[in-house]
Structure formats: C-alpha cells, structure tokens
Amino acid sequence: ADLCVNDYFCSFFFLFGQTTMYKQSVREIFDDISLSVISFLESHSGICDVEFNERQGIAESLLAKWEQENYPYVLPDDYKSFLQISDGLELTWKIKIGNDVEPLGCLHLNKMREIKQVKSNRFKLCKVGVEDDDESDDDNFLDPSDVKKPEIMAYDIDSLCQDGRVVLLYKDTFNKPQIWFQDLSCGWFFIANTFTDYFRLMIMHLGLPHWQYAFTDVGLDPVAEKWFRFLSPNRLQIDIKNRIKQERSTRKKDKHAADEKALNIKMDSYKRRTRYKSKSRGSGTSIIEKFNLNSSKTAKFARSSKKKKTPNTTTKTKSTLDQIDQSIKQANKSSSDKSGSSASRSSTAAKSSSLSSGGTKQ
Fold first, then answer.
1. What are 135-165's pLDDT values in tens digits?
2. What is the pTM of this model?
3. What are the Cα distances from residue 323, in Å, to 72, 133, 308, 314, 348?
4. In 264-287, which positions are buried (b, 16+ CB within 10 angstroms) versus exposed (e)?
5. Rg of the Cα atoms in the chain
6. Are 171 and 128 in contact (CB under 8 A)?
7. Helix-strand-coil percent breakdown of the chain, rounded to 5?
8. For residue 190, which phi and psi values (nearest 5 degrees)?
9. Nearest to residue 76, comparing CAs of 182, 189, 204, 169?
10. Span 310-357, pLDDT tens digits
C-alpha cells in the first residue's frame, strides 16, 4: 500500500525508452508496475485464460497533438508516462464455474485516440461536487460570469466500464484532473485524486465487474461481494470499513441538517409571535403617535380629537334620560292645563244656570 506507483511509471518509462539495452517487454513492465497482478491471476486455481493485450507506447508528439486539440486542458504527468509505456490497457481473465468457463474480470483503459470529451447533453455537470466535500458551498462552485475560472470538463478513459462511466474530470483546473464515476442514476462520485491512485485501485479490485460502485451511495451488489470474498477478501474488508464510515458521516450530516431546520422553524415562529404582540400592543396609541409625528397641531388637540372619535357612552346615556324626563314634564303640564280650563268652563255654566232659574221665580 505504501508503494508509489507514480515512481514506477517514471522509472519504467525510462527503461522502456531504452528497450534496446534492457530488452524488456510491455507485459513485463506492466506486471512490475501493477504489483504482479498478472502473475497472481495466472497462479490462481479458479482463474484461467488470462489475456494481456500488449500495446506499444505512443510518442510525445502525439501527446502534444492531443493537448493542442483539447486546449487548454492537458493530461496529468503520471497518465502521460503510462501512455508512453502502453497506449491504453486491456487485461481480461475468465473464471471456472464447474465445467464451464465464464468471462469475468477486465482491466481496461482507453487508447489515447479514444480519450474523448463527454457530451454536455449527457453529462450532468450540475451534480458534480455537491457531496464530495463537507465544507463546500455555493461559493466554491463554478461561476459562469467569472472568466478566471475554467469550466468543468470531462474525458472518458474507460469505454468498457459496465453500468457506468469513468472520466478524467477537470474542475476549476486545466492540468490537475480527478477521477470520477457516474452510475446508472446519473449521480457522480469521487474515486481518486490522481490517475496513479485510480490505477492502484483498479489493480487491487482485479477489474471485477462493478467494482467502482464501492465508492457510491449504493455500494457493491451481492454478486460482486461474493466474487470479492472469493478472490480479494482483504480489499472487500477495506471497502466495507469505508462504507461504514461513509454511512456514519451521512447520518451526521442528515442529523445536523434536521436540527438546523428545526431551529430555523422555532426562530421563525418566535419572530412571528413577537411581531404580532408588538403590533397588537401599539394599535391603541398608533393614531395619536402618527398624528404627533406628521401634524403641526398640538398634542392637546390630538387628545381631544381622539375623545371625539371615541365618545363617552355614560354621558350620552345621561343626556338621553334628561331629554325623556323633560318630555314627560311637558306632557304632564299640558294635561293639567287642559283639565283646569274644562273645570272653569263647568263652573261658569253652573253659575249662569242658577241665575236664570232665580229670575223666573221672581
């Protein structure tokens, strides 16, 4: 694990350039830089038909031509060293199942002419980098209006990858790409910082189908886990431990997000209650305060105007009762006057009748 594969690339690239002196084949070079993976597969009792397709390295002029066609993006140094040793990689092997033989493993890297840009209409660039960094935020993403930052670009490096896509991803850089994997859900997942790290991971997973899913949220499928237990149990334990750590960090993120959301809801409800109380408390004096601020009249007039707007109900009731009493008195007085006049008329009539009766008698 402590072995630096990049140093192997550089040293064996020098040896490969001196083939007339050392007489070393590409297979021998690859077996050395791949930690003897070919020898391991050939010596395994359950594996057969190990085929390594030898490819001669490419010239530096062809690398310069590729970089010129894809300017301003350049290939990393470790990947260029590998391409100068072997133009791509193709190592396949089969597994014995009873009396049958089935193809299973494939370690593959595209030739230089097959390293092509991923089409933008199929490449969901907006999902790249959303969950790869705990401290990432919207300010760390690419701003199209900022001319100083390059756009996100991706190049396919493994056209034979099953149920996914492996790419060199240039994010905010022109010369230091990372290795990312896109699964069938179109989600993007980080695999390695450099080509050297990806090359080492591919060797440790022996090119088993769907090994890149060990770095996704889904994880390895049950069939892939069985093959890993049979062929590479140590690597499976490492992947399981990394998976557990990833799940724990995801749970912590979800819990933190839920707590923050609940706190925001409580703060919003508290602010609403505070605004409602302040509004209801200031409604009784809002008219006078507004009048005092915006009018040239005195506060005394403002208070009087408020009294006019809100008259006293007891005073109004008292005045109404007084009016009723006066009307009753006037009615009684008029009735007494009418009774007095009728009594005087009856007395005068009685006197006149008595006088007339006395005159007749005489």
1. 444 444 344 444 444 478 899 999 999 889 9
2. 0.61
3. 101, 87, 22, 15, 39
4. eeeeeeeeeeeeeeeeeeeeeeee
5. 50
6. yes
7. 55, 15, 30
8. -75, 135
9. 169
10. 555 555 566 676 777 777 777 777 766 655 555 555 555 555 555 555
Question: Is the model more confident about 99 or about 124?
Answer: 99
Nearest to 333 by CA among 325, 344, 323, 322: 325
* SS3 of residue 163 by DSSP: coil
- Measured CA to CA, the distance from residue 82 to residue 33 in angstroms comes to 10
Q: How far is CA 178 from the centre of its chain?
A: 22
Give dist(CA 159, CA 216) in Å, integer: 19
Tokens of 49: 């038909």
Over range 162-179, report the average pLDDT: 91
Q: Could you give the residue ranges of the DSSP H alpha helices within 97-232? A: 195-204, 222-231
Distance CA 204, CA 246 (A): 20
**Can you tell me the distance from the alpha carbon of 291 to that of 275, in angstroms, rounded to the nearest whole number?**
22
Contact between residue 4 and residue 78 where contact means Cβ atoms under 8 Å apart: no
Q: What's the confidence (pLDDT) of residue 154?
A: 92
Residue 187 tokens, joined: 């989600």
Nearby residues of 49 by Cβ (< 8 Å), 6 or more positions away: 92, 93, 94, 101
Place of tokens 């069938």: 184
Neighbouring-strand partners of residue 189: 181
Structure-token pair, residue 147: 């001319």
Residue of 189, 154, 182 whose CA lies nearest to 73: 154
Task: Report how far Cα 229 is from the mean position of its chain's Cα atoms.
Answer: 36
| Residue in this structure with the two tokens 């506060």, named with its chain if needed | 299
Asked whether the predicted pLDDT for residue 94 surpasses 50, the reply is yes
**Dihedral sign computed on CA atoms, order 331, 332, 337, 340:** positive
* Total count of residues recorded for the chain: 362
